[in-house]
Structures are given as C-alpha cells and as structure tokens.
Amino acid sequence: MTNEYFKKVLVVGSGNVGVLLAYALVSSSTRPSVYVLVRNPQYLKLFRDEGIKIITADGTSLRLEGVHFISYDDLRKIGLFDLIIVATKAYDSLEAVKQVREFLGSGGVLVTCQNGLRSYEEALEILGPSKTATMVLNHGVYRVGNREFKWIGGSTSYLGGKGISRELLSSIASLLEVLSVQVVDDIEPYRWLKLAVNAAINPLTALYEVKNKLIIIDENLFKIATMVVAETQRVAEKYGVVMPVDPLKEVVRVAEATGENYSSMLQDIIWGKRTEVDYINGEVVVRGRRAGVLTPVNEVLWLMIKYKESLKRMT
Ligand code: PAF
C-alpha cells in the first residue's frame, strides 16, 4: 500500500528528533521513500557507512534501515518532495526552511517540529498557511553515542495547520503511526501546553544538572516550576489560548513519566551546544511583554541559562 499524497519525504536534521521521525516513517505500512538531510559531513559519512541504532524503552536495539542520508548538495539531484519535516533545533529552523523551500513539490506540505514557539510562525510567513503545518511531539529521545539514540517512548503527539485539509493532515499522521499522532483543528493550545512544560522542566534541570524527576521531588524546584507555569498560563490566556489540560498537572505527569531522563536543555549543556531557551522561556517573556503580562521568573531562568550556555559552549 502506498500513501496517496506523500510518497517522497525529506526529514531535515539528523539529531534526536530527526532520527526518531525517520524511524517512524520507515516503519509506516505505506512505505514512503525517506531522505534525511545531514548537515555535519562527519555524521553523514558515519551514518552512511555504519548506520544508526535505535534503542527502545525495553532495551531492544534496532538498526534504522531504508533511510537515504543525504547532504545539501544531493538535494538538487533528488528533485521535489511531497512532504518535508523540519526537525532541526529551533534556532536553525528558519534557515532550514529557506534552504529547502524550493524542493517542496506543488501540492507539498512542510511540517515544523521544534520545541518552543516561533519556528512555525516563521515557516508560515515564508510558505503560507496552505503549505505549512506543525507538530507537537511528545516523545523522549536522546543520544547515547555518536550513532546510537535511545527512544524512551512518549504520549499522543499533535499535528495541525491553519490552512491544510484534514485529509492531508490525517495522511501525514498515518505516516507517523508509531508515534500516535493525532490531528487537531487548533494546534495552539497543545503548543502552549508543551511550552509550559518545557519552560518549567528544561531550564531548572539544566541549571542544576539533575534528572527530570527532581522538579517534583524537590519542593523548592517545584515552587519555581509552579511560578513559571502560572506566568506562562497568564500569557497564553492574553492570546486567547486555553490549554487542553491543567499545565501544572501536565508538568507533574511529564516529570513523572520522564523522571529518569535528562531534559533536552540539559543534554545541550552537557554536549556544549546552544540551548533552545530563547524559544522557550524567552518566547514567554517576549510574548508577555507584547501582551502587557509580567514574567519575571521566566526572565530570570532565561538569563541564567544564557549565562550557563556561554560558559559551556563549544559549538
Ligand atoms: O525537552 C525535553 O527534554 C522534553 O520535551 C521534556 C518533556 C521536558 C522531557 O524531557
């Protein structure tokens, strides 16, 4: 069986999220051709020569089969894609969209898949609502070696796009069935819910270099997380967004479910990379300012992470 709309798919980015999406796509019963754009030439060679391993929550080790790892120069030879999923870090997504837009076929769709806010808005501005969708991915995956990734599982993820038919969105969701992706009419409440969770868990775990569960074990960290969530909720409400569930309960649920893991922000700090704090707590602050809502706790965490990042950054 083939997918009527999306036969040729490009995943931009070969980090944790890109690898997980490529795995989901090649596992799909509709078997699209899957290409992964790898920016770093050393990783490109490594992945081509030795492949990628995915270790699932129960410890099973799977080889990622059937994916074409390509460079930017290869794109021109391959032609147009029906679906492009941008799975870069948030701070790279705008540049990535600009680079790949010419490779999106006429009826094609581009999906952004980043933590925080802003990447979707930027892509929308470039491609317009009839070609742009976004996904809120609620899965945990992290790198345990140069070519090994641990996928700890996750919960329902959400896909939406203001100007794209439900049929097309459902077709994309069906390609990602192993990630249980649900199509929603309004994606904003889900984006803000994930934002609140990330704004509370990520900077605190990154600052103190602790596992996610510490947010609910330590009463002082939990108090700070509660303040972060309350500020984020106030900003969301000013924009008319009502989150689908209580965001503090969601923080507790996620911190419990991912208790033994290190947040993506802490992993970035450990690997000496830039973090996504500008798109998480930074966006809460910027949008709060625009709407006249004070967000001092988010702002302090934002500044503290920026300082910590500057101490550790190697790239
Ligand atoms: O960014 C992350 O690490 C994850 O989104 C989350 C939910 C905080 C779990 O680690």
Description:
- With 315 residues, this protein is α/β, with parallel strands linked by helices.
- The protein has 2 domains: 8-185, NAD(P)-binding Rossmann-like Domain (Rossmann fold, 3-Layer(aba) Sandwich), CATH 3.40.50.720; 189-314, N-(1-d-carboxylethyl)-l-norvaline Dehydrogenase, domain 2, CATH 1.10.1040.10.
- Helix content is 48%, strand content 19%.
- The chain is built from 13 helices and 12 strands.
- The protein has an 8-stranded mixed β-sheet with strand order 5-2-1-6-7-8-11-12, sandwiched between helices.
- Helix 7 (188-208) runs antiparallel to helix 9 and helix 7 (188-208) packs across helix 11.
- The N and C termini lie far apart (43 Å).
- Pantoate binds at residues 115, 140, 197-198, 201-202, 212, 254, 258, 261, 263-264.
Q: Which features does this protein show?
A:
single chain; 315 residues; alpha/beta; Rossmann fold; N-(1-d-carboxylethyl)-l-norvaline Dehydrogenase, domain 2; 2 domains; eight-stranded mixed sheet; four-stranded mixed sheet; 12 strands; 19% strand; binds pantoate
Write the topology of this structure.
Blueprint: E1 8-12, H1 16-27, E2 33-37, H2 41-50, E3 53-55, E4 61-63, E5 67-70, H3 72-78, E6 81-86, H4 90-100, E7 104-112, H5 119-127, E8 132-136, E9 139-143, E10 148-154, E11 157-160, H6 166-175, E12 181-183, H7 188-208, H8 214-217, H9 219-238, H10 247-257, H11 264-270, H12 281-291, H13 296-312
Parallel strand pairs: 1-2, 1-6, 2-5, 3-10, 6-7, 7-8, 11-12
Antiparallel strand pairs: 3-4, 8-11, 9-10
